[in-house]
Amino acid sequence: MTTSGLSAVRAGLLDYQAAWDEQRRLHEAVVAGEQGDTVLLLEHPSVYTAGKRTEPWDRPVDGTPVIDVDRGGKITWHGPGQLVGYPIVRLPDPVDVVAYVRRTEQLLIDVCAEFGLAAGRVEGRSGVWVPEDDRGPARKVAAIGIRVARGVTLHGFSINCDCDLGHFDRIVPCGIRDAGVTSLTAELGRPVTVADVLPVVERRLPTLVQV
Question: Binding residue per annotation — 175?
């Protein structure tokens, strides 16, 4: 699928390492001008990944394997029921990483809104959040962790659709102890699957490159 010069690739269920290899291949091609902006959309088998700011006490205490990666941020979980997006896009000069993160957040906020969930930003924290309410403190429904190399982005975002939230109990997700993690299904009280969310995310992808 191509929207506004941005190609979306539905990669299905893909091992984390295989997806990382494909990201790097695409990144080289986009940097070289051999390929246009491309977004990989996929699910991973269950895996924990740790960004560069992960502290030892953020990691699982039960020996669960963790893959260390070169994105920003701390530790998170990826797995079935969670839609992951890896945009490999060239940022305009001068490169403004914060503006790109804000555009990514806006894409995810708009996706949540389409399903009837009011979500937004929390000052000083990346990602997309359901605000504190009578059900509990603010909780993250979508996470963002990116890297920019030679003006082109790597890594990206994840949005929890109908995943098992118990996987987050083994870690301190994104290093944040005083807030929870949630999903579209948990918040809306009805099943919302990756298959449901995928076309909505695809339609919103132009938000990433609008400046």
Answer: no
Number of CB atoms found within 10 A of residue 203's CB: 15
Helix (H) or strand (E) holding 194: helix 194-204
Digit-by-digit pLDDT tens for the chain (211 residues) are 655 579 999 999 999 999 999 999 999 999 999 999 999 999 999 999 888 888 888 888 777 778 888 887 788 889 999 999 999 999 999 999 999 999 999 999 999 999 999 999 998 888 999 998 888 889 999 999 899 999 999 999 999 999 999 888 877 655 455 558 999 999 999 999 999 999 999 999 999 987 6
Residue 36 is assigned to a ligand binding site: no
Task: Determine whether 4 is exposed, middle or buried from the number of CB atoms within 10 Å of its CB (0-12, 13-18, 19+).
Answer: exposed
Query: Residues with catalytic annotation?
Result: 174
Q: Write down the domain spans for the chain.
A: 7-208
Q: Would the annotation count 46 as a binding residue? A: no
Measured distance CA(209)–CA(211) in Å, rounded = 6
Any known ligand binding at 158? yes
The domain 7-208 is classified under which CATH number: 3.30.479.30, 3.90.220.20, 3.30.930.10, 3.40.190.10? 3.30.930.10
- Tell me the whole-structure pTM to 2 decimals: 0.92
- CA-CA-CA-CA dihedral for 184, 188, 194, 198, to nearest 10: -90
Q: What backbone torsions phi and psi does residue 122 show, to the nearest 5 degrees?
A: -120, 125
